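As a warm-up, study this chain.
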Amino acid sequence: MSNADTTKQPAVIARNLRKTYESGRVVALDDLSLDVAAGEFVAICGPSGCGKSTLLNMITCIDQPDSGSIEVFDKRVSALNAREADDYRANDVGLVFQLHNLLPHLTAIENVQTPMLGIVTDRSERAQRAAALLEQVGMTHRLNNLPTTMSGGERQRVAVARAMANRPRLILADEPTGSLDSHTGQRLLGLLTELRDATGVTLIVVTHEHAVADKADRTIRMLDGRVEG
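Now compare it with the structure written out below.
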């Protein structure tokens, strides 16, 4: 594992994270610490059960550590209450999942607008922003199509546009290419890299695929709830 770029503002600082389940019998994170610099593309790799997804849940405040702390752009997210965590996820973080999680009854442009509801009050502004994002990911021709009419790669492109809806500084992707064939997965990776280069967004991708890790600026390898090396 190469070192984080210490010349840039830190995006994520995790210190001594510990998380257990089943009354302490299962240790998901074991005194884990890491830094991610602003604008960095980091791949987090490791075998199943090593704590990768648990770490992502900590960063997104879906779950809280038993001990330790996480700061994201100077915000101590490990200490947020439920309402603050909702605001943080809505405004500061974009999420991309292995399965796109698009709403099947909404068109592409409507799906991309969903994170903006309650944040961007003007309907025309929401539509314009969503259309611009879909153009950025090469999906202008699918604005008014439902997810069921799209290929897997197209659905993931819409999911990436949705993750960018509120202009987050951090995007977290959990196995974003896991349900795609290798060619489509490579195209999606290229898209994520282009978005990072164009916007300066920080990108953290959990993956088990070497091809994904090879595209990243840096790879963090996990084993048994710890960072290796």
